[in-house]
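Worked example 2:
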Amino acid sequence: MVDYFRQERLVQAFYFFLLLFIFLLARLCLIQVKNGDKLAFAALEQDTMSVVLEDIPRGRILDRNLEPLTDENRSERVVIFPRLIEDRAEVAAGLAGILGVEQGKITRALAGDPKYLPYPLSGEQVRFIRERGWSGVMVLPVYFRYGSQSLAVQVIGHLGSIFSAKDLADLNKGEKFYRLNDLVGKTGLEKYYDYDLKAARPEQVVRVFVDAGGRVVGSPVFYLNAGDPGRRDLVLTVDADIQRAVENVMDGMIVKGAVVVMEAGTGDILAIASRPGFNPARVEDFLGGAGNECFLDRATALYQPGSVFKVVVAAAALEEGIVSPADLFFCRGEKENLLRCWYAPGHSTISFARAFAESCNPTFVRVALRLGAARLIACARQFGFADQAIAGYPLPVDRRQDLSLIGLPNNLVNSSIGQGPVLATPVQVAAMINAIASDGIYSRPRLVKELRRSNGKIERQFPDDKSRVISSATARELKKLLALVTADGTGKDAYLPVCGSAGKTGTAQVTDGGQKVNTWFAGYAPLAGPRFVITVLVEEGAGGRETAAQVFSVIAKKIIAGAV
């Protein structure tokens, strides 16, 4: 009996130690497999002094042709390891003379930690420094994420510091290693894809090893990390050439507003720009006061679309058979009871087609009343006016956009001309026009194509999403109406003589007195075989024909010429 109990205790002890061994093995696997790289990098950081040869170790944000949108660049810089410098006074005097800076600035830099100096170098300066052969002084290329010509800055966003130890602890719960002085995404794509873009370790570093007492061991060693440093590149649908052309036009013609260019037939956003803008390399210069307005992305913000929304009214009415282009209406101008027309004398007897071209308000009020709120709301939903989603760009939903408000008492009249409770973003307006240019097929707007590793391997894709919203016959009728606007209507300034264009003007009052208005033009070009859908919003402009339509014309000519 004693032997039996002894054997039972041995078996229990065996299983106890087996479970303990399995636990320790699992813990070791967790350390070695899951966190091995992270801990190895932390150990390397502890055993070395280093200078990272990137201002921000981070994945790139690229256009559809893999061109960087942040105007990244590499520039030669002086890299110093003060502990390795034998005669600091000699080096300070020599560098000051070569760089043309005050010697005191160099002296203070040589008294600090290893770093690269913030002075761009000419080829001659590089040669002079290398000829000196000073120990602890090198000239190496440093990668800078942002230049002075960054594109699409509002959607790309900007970076900022980690504010607290708690934020740092939360960030370090993942596999990547964050430090308190790291920069992280604060807005836009930089924020939404921060973890993917963040490098687990720098790609290029120059290091000096130190012993346990902090004494230097050996000479500087330049490291080019092999393999994947943990960062991902974000590939957008944006075309850098088109984006650049759009922004150049805006800088000359728009103080405040937005432009969206969409590829007809796909919903891919080729350009998305907002003004005023900012420089993500110098964010601090734009913070505070009125400067914060620069960070607003007007291309994805809600506005009253004005008469651009008449396209939805026309689409619903034509699709339901409530009206035809030849149907006649009567406009009494400013004498109308429900809603006066912008044209004070009135259009008198006018066909629906001419009413669309002339943007006759009373005609669209009568059509909307025949249509009813329910059918207008349904059509607006089909055209994406209740869906602010952009593929690959997870913006928070703005709850102010609520199409059900159209159905409340007394709202249908103002809604028929795109005012009252009707709100839309320039991206949504572009998607609506794109559905008409695409024969009634609606494509969800898409900004991000894919997330890929630095070796080019695609890790995640963002497919497009299409659905039919109106019949091909209705789309053909709407195309004729949109072409009439630019040929002989309110949008004549948007007409392109060679290839033709089509679209719709819009004006929405900003103040009760009507002294300030937001003006729109949304259309496509060329007229036959549309390639580009362009939506222009000018905040507090003069009028659709005098501002937005002209901007459309200039942009369309430039991008069509560049695409030939």
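Confidence is low (pLDDT under 50) at residues 38-44. The domain at 48-155+200-232 is CATH 3.90.1310.10 (Penicillin-binding protein 2a (Domain 2)).
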